[in-house]
């Protein structure tokens, strides 16, 4: 391998590493600063904690999809992006 090929291979490797680093840094969002209780989007059996109307007080007891009384925690700012999502409460994230 001549010097020109070695230099080209080295530059290509450095550029590829830089691209992977930028891609990886943007692939996972930062830890949320707050959570919101998002109602109206939970699937049956997939809710977080009790129903808003008091019909039950445990996670996983939703009986139908998208019930307005069933909710899940989502990072703040996410709920309103989901069709049918309604923000019912917010809480700060643990530090």
- Which parts are unreliable, with pLDDT below 50 for 5 consecutive residues or more? none
Can you list the strand order of the major beta sheet? 2-1-3
Helix content: 25-40%
Mean pLDDT: 84
Q: Which structural class best describes the helix and strand composition?
A: alpha+beta
Rg, Å, rounded: 23 Å
Q: List how many beta strands DSSP finds.
A: 3
Main beta sheet: 3 strands, antiparallel
Q: Compute the number of helices.
A: 1
The topology string of helices and strands comes to HEEE
Structure report:
Helix content is 26%, strand content 19%. The chain is α+β, with helices and mostly antiparallel strands and 95 residues long. The chain folds into 2 domains: 1-30; 34-92, no CATH class. It has a 3-stranded antiparallel beta sheet with strand order 2-1-3, with no helix packed on it. The longest helix has 25 residues, at 3-27. The radius of gyration is 23 Å and the shape is elongated. The termini are far apart. The mean pLDDT is 84.
Write a short abstract of this structure:
With 95 residues, the protein is an alpha+beta fold. It is 26% helix and 19% strand. It has one helix and three strands; from the N terminus they run H-E-E-E.
